Amino acid sequence: MLLGFVILYLVVSIGIGMYAATRVHNARDYIAAGRSLPIWIVTAMVFATWFGAETVLGIPATFLEEDLGGLISDPFGASLCLILFGLFFARKLYRLNLLTIADYYRSRYDRRVELVTGIAISLSYLGWVSAQITALGLVFNVLSDGQITQAQGILIGAAIVLMYTLYGGMWSVALTTFFQMIVIVVGLFYIAWLIADRAGGVAPVVAHAAANAKFEFWPELETVAIVAFISGLLTMGFGSIPQQDVFQRANSSRNENVAVWGTVLGGLAYFLFAAVPLYMAYAAHLIDPALVSRWLGEDAQKILPELIKGDFPLAAQVVFYGALLAVIMSTASGTLLAPSVTISENVLKGFVTRRRRLSDKQLLTMTRWVVAVFAVLVTLYSLWSLERETTIHQMVENAYKVTLVLAFVPLVAGLYWRRATTRGAYLAMTFGLVTWLGLEALAPEGEGRIPPQFAGFLAACVGMLAGSIAGRGGHAQGGKA
């Protein structure tokens, strides 16, 4: 019966997505929803896209296994990214009337910078989208009592998300995420209220967590620990800024003020509401200690789903799994569309238009084909990560390293430093990529004094300064930004 309600919910979501497809008449509708969305939909899209599987399953699992400091990248770094983007990037980029964020790199620098950053941005989504598809597989596995394997669940989940994203594009993302945000907020607050009743309230859960040092946040006063802490914050806090999904939501706004405040409000809502799954998962210590002990040793991501499925009435299970699916699907659809649009507009289009000019209809068709191909790649990556036993939280954390070292510095320098040159962008990308990959090979996971991606970020800053100051032969187009 529970599985039947879940299937009904999926059918409704697909129906909303297919209805949204009727609003798509051209590529701009598909990619940016006609730049017509009001603040309440933009805020809902930002919140629902970022409030994904890692927030409900991955982050609580990390908190149970470590402490609050283990969440420095997400939700702390993720919330920082959204607020910074809204305050310092949304208005400037909105005024340029671009289709993708990688278009900016072509406008400010040249085609080569656009191509490299477009590929980097697209590759970064493999981990994030795969985390959502992996979570769908986990949900189907739990709901079916193991009759559906997680690998089979991944295949089912990928097919469902592809179905409504493929046709409706940004309009499907906008309407389904608004519906899903309502399900998320109402559903999780209802389940949190039921859990609080079982656990004796909020205070006993907080007191138990404090007694077990779960609120330890700041690093030890030692250089390596401090650098790792800062790196964890900046990898997602800075690395997520040059991302198509963040840009796309701001760019779909009806005006620049909506772009700014829709992103900021979505970031604040994400940070505050991320505490709800943390509370729900940790309360299992007081409700069913044996269940916590069992799954901590196997897969901490299953603690909350198994708690709800085993100890709560059918109505609560329907609400929880509906909210969980809303969380996952809202993120999966948006993060599947974003890299596909970037590949189509900023990688493939440039090669195709060398021979012939693409019509708007042809660009739309090509984008849909890329969505389908990228969905296949994501599915394969999810299955591979499943074999390696990579956690959902780790998959999301790893997603932003490439954009931190390749795309962030050229974006900030281009917008805020008039002397930034194309040569500076070349050196920033080269220094950042070589340093990061070199240290990943020699000292993975920061086994040296500094995490590889943080070293790559610092090297990118040096490259931009050196290339722009010493090499004024590269053209600086600061006036365009």
Q: Could you characterize the architecture of this molecule?
A:
This protein is mainly α and 481 residues long. It has helices spanning 2-20, 27-32, 39-50, 53-65, 72-88, 90-95, 101-108, 111-143, 150-199, 202-211, 223-237, 244-251, 256-273, 275-282, 284-287, 289-298, 303-311, 314-352, 360-388, 392-398, 401-406, 408-416, 422-442, 452-470. It has 24 helices and no strands. Helix 3 (39-50) packs antiparallel against helix 12. The longest helix is centred in the middle third of the chain and has 50 residues, at 150-199. Mean pLDDT is 86; it is low at 477-481.
Low-confidence blocks of residues: 477-481
Strand % is under 5%
What sort of overall outline do the alpha carbons produce when their principal axes are compared?
Answer: globular
Radius of gyration: 22 Å
Instruction: Average the pLDDT over all residues and give the rounded result.
Output: 86
Order of helices and strands: HHHHHHHHHHHHHHHHHHHHHHHH
What count of structural domains?
2
Helix amount, in percent? over 70%
- How far apart lie the N and C ends? 56 Å
Which CATH C-level class of the largest domain is it? Mainly Alpha
DSSP helix count? 24
CATH topology of the largest domain: Sodium/glucose cotransporter
Brief rundown of the structure:
By secondary structure, the chain is an all-alpha fold. The chain is 78% helix and 0% strand.
